[in-house]
Amino acid sequence: MRILINGASRDIRAADLSGALEELGYAGAVVATAINGEFVPAAHRQTARLAEGDRIEVLAPMQGG
Amino acid sequence: MLRLYDVDLTSRLLLGTARYSSPAILTEAVQASGAQVVTASLRRESGGERAGQAFWSLIRGLGVRVLPNTAGCHSVKEAVTTAHMGREIFATPWVKLEVIGEDETLQPDVFGLLEAARILCREGFEVFPYTTEDLIVAERLLEAGCRVLMPWGSPIGSGRGLNNLFGLEALRTRFPGVPMVIDAGIGAPSHAVQALELGYDAVLINTAVSQAREPAAMAGAFAQAVIAGRAAYEAGLMEPRDLAKPSTPVVGRAFLS
Lengths: 65, 257
Known about the structure:
The structure holds two protein chains of two kinds. By secondary structure, chain A is mainly beta.
């Protein structure tokens, strides 16, 4: 299905957020996630089902002031 | 000793981690500053580059406490969601809450800030609100549950120091027991001294250090500045006068004319 990951359109096979992260190269990474603007805690990623057109945000620590 | 949300700190300098020319220079600057708290942010991570992972292991290696920010958030919802994401990643209830109202000055949207602070305090966050020197906003933030305030000195990254000295003095005087950190606009160690002399508890510096020709040396200069400013505040500053007053005693002066 087609989803938006950090603003970029991607075709993925996974049906849940956990699988999508694995598929997109985030395995083992320290990241926080949101679907369509709603925070999805790490513990809920396996049960977070994805739908066509979902907007996924994957954030990581970055320099900040 | 500085206490922020039940955490005792010996350094009154908090350091931002943005805009350093390399990770090595950032590391040197943090070490030279003696800061025990650094700010960090959250940004989109690429599954290929995974740049955030390297930054995170660098920060963890420094052994300092992280104050996650909500920089760049313009709405309450964005700020609250970012705070949740930061709490999970950084494993801390601390959040430097920024709700930006206007892009030219990056002035806080104090209405959105207050709304977000109410939500986050209720949820158990320990909120460090980036605010203005407005007394009523400060009062409302404290009522919302904030136990630290972070008023701006001047716009973020402007380096203009304490823009509204009268307003900042009034804020400090109005809420004597509340820890307050000047959060933005400090451009030189002299500004940091001034903030501490006024009774502000600490300063948060980023651009003035990261954009210095020698960031580590500037971090060291700021470390000394906050020590001097605090010592002066505790020693008690003299009252300024309009006219001269001889410091050398007049009594016993020779008559030589």
